[in-house]
Amino acid sequence: MRVLLVEDDAMIGEAVLDALRADRYAVDWVRDGVMADTALRTETYDLVLLDLGLPKRDGLQVLRDLRGRHVTVPVLIATARDAVGDRIAGLDAGADDYVVKPFDTDELLARIRALIRRSAGRGEPVFSHKGVTLNPATREASVHGEPVSLSAREWAVLEPMLARPGVVFSRSQLEEKLYGWKDDISSNAIEVYVHGLRKKLGSDMIQTVRGLGYLVPRL
């Protein structure tokens, strides 16, 4: 899952970034409203975590413009603006949820998981195929019922393929799931993570489609 974090406070941003990555999300972090608008116009996200008091452009205007383009990505506002009127304005502008700083990180992550589940139309999202099960709600993985530890980036590579068996994902599509905003991309990163997943899940779990990419085969 890929999250856009829009936060200008360096201390808060670092803490939230670390928490999201520890919970196996790919994160793009931008620090002003103009960069947020650019990211939302050029990239695809599973959720936006949006501050309101931003440099260059207010977060509420970023949100209004986003909804004006009929983009339905879930938006969770996280801001110091705690007046009832501010909450109403944020929700009326199209936010799906609203939390006030300072917030508890565990609660923030729970709200993010709930919004992603809701947007996917799944009350209890679980992907299971050929004995491998991923539960995005709990961030747990298993092979034939036995727990297996996946790194955040292994999870990011595997989840879209396991959710759509038989669909070929190109290297660039998987890189988009894997990396955060402006992170360096090594030339063989996808191959490295696919190799690691095969060792943990079985050599036949992920197939290489020469010249095209990778897929989880149908049963």
Automatic annotation (TrEMBL):
GO terms for molecular function: phosphorelay response regulator activity; transcription cis-regulatory region binding. Keywords: DNA-binding, Phosphoprotein, Transcription, Transcription regulation, Two-component regulatory system. Gene3D superfamilies: 3.40.50.2300, 6.10.250.690, Winged helix-like DNA-binding domain superfamily/Winged helix DNA-binding domain. InterPro entries: CheY-like_superfamily, OmpR/PhoB-type_DNA-bd, Sig_transdc_resp-reg_receiver, WalR-like, WH-like_DNA-bd_sf. One of its GO terms (cellular component) is cytosol. GO terms for biological process: regulation of DNA-templated transcription. The modification 4-aspartylphosphate is found at D51. Residues 124-218 form the OmpR/PhoB-type domain. Residues 2-116 form the Response regulatory domain. Pfam families: Response_reg, Trans_reg_C. Residues 124-218 bind DNA. The keyword Heme does not apply. This is Response regulator. It comes from Caenimonas aquaedulcis.
